[in-house]
Design a protein that fits this description.
70 residues, mainly beta
Length: 70
């Protein structure tokens, strides 16, 4: 995962997003650059996408705690 805080995008390797796109690695623009403060490169993240006529934008982004093995 890469984050470009200056330009306002994050690259995410994501699973399939049903009825929107297959699993892939791609860059997503954010509506609010402060969302990028919620993650660091290499984090697992959850996100919400807003689909518009000019593209998809993330409106929510949050770090997901890593799964701990026992």
């Amino acid at each position: 995962m890469q984050i470009n805080r200056e330009e306002g995008w994050i690259e995410i390797n994501h699973d399939e997003i049903k009825e929107l796109m297959p699993a892939m690695q791609m860059e997503f623009w954010v509506k609010d650059k402060s969302l990028l403060d919620q993650a660091n490169a290499g984090d697992r993240v959850g996100f919400t996408i807003l689909e518009t006529t000019s593209g998809e934008y993330l409106t929510e982004l949050k770090r997901i705690a890593p799964v701990q093995s026992r």
